[in-house]
Amino acid sequence: MRKAFEDGKNEPGAADFYYGECEMRRHDTTGTSKGERRLLWAYWLLTGYGLRAARAFAWLLATMSLTVLLLLGVGLPTHDPDPATSGTLHGSRISRSTSTPDPALHGGWSRRVTLARTEKAIRVVVNSVIFRSSGQNLTTAGTYIEMAAFSEPTLLALGVLAIRGRIKR
Q: Cα–Cα distance between 88 and 97 in angstroms, integer?
């Protein structure tokens, strides 16, 4: 019936049948494998089978907020590392070297949770979601936090696809 609705250009009706079809597969314990049911459950929970853009964007906002909080706590260095250049003069030849210290986190929570650090954490997370790389100096924990936030671009894409499906109807 979904195919008939799609052929008849009745996109909202086809979407209702698609939702019902996915629901039946998610609840079917005999014909659907356990792994497929878990995948369908996650797809339903995160995006309502790709039909609920608000749900995808709500999850995106929640995961981005968690990432910002983690970066504020342990991911952003207290101060940006300053490169140090040193050189020696050997007759008419100059040799120099530049070293950048590893980003470090110092101080308690009052120094970690500031407006400037919050704004920087938000920029890092948004940049990471859209471009998948922030290019910022982060602590080791911050680098791992950024790598672990792999679901955020996926949620953004699922939300955009749900909007596209809604507009197409």
A: 9
Predicted model pTM:
0.72
CA dihedral sign of residues 136, 138, 143, 146: negative
Helix (H, G, I), strand (E, B) or coil at 78: coil
> CA geometry: angle at 154 spanning 26 and 161, to 5°?
75
Other Cβ atoms closer than 10 A to 148? 10
Q: How many CB atoms within 10 Å of residue 110?
A: 7
Q: What is the phi-psi region of residue 80: left when phi exceeds 0, alpha when psi lies from -120 to 50, beta otherwise?
A: beta
Centroid of chain to Cα 98: 34
Please give the structure tokens belonging to residue 97. 């070297």
Integer Cα distance of 119 and 117 in angstroms: 5
What's the one-letter identity of residue 138? L
Q: pLDDT tens across 100-140, in order? A: 666 767 777 777 788 888 898 898 888 888 877 766 788 88
Q: Kindly report, residue by residue over 54-68, the tens digit of the pLDDT.
A: 999 999 999 999 999
Name residues whose C-beta falls within 8 Å of residue 17's C-beta, 6 or more positions apart in sequence. 1, 2, 5
Contact between 157 and 167 under an 8 Å Cβ cutoff? The reply is no
What local confidence, expressed as pLDDT, does residue 134 receive?
A: 63
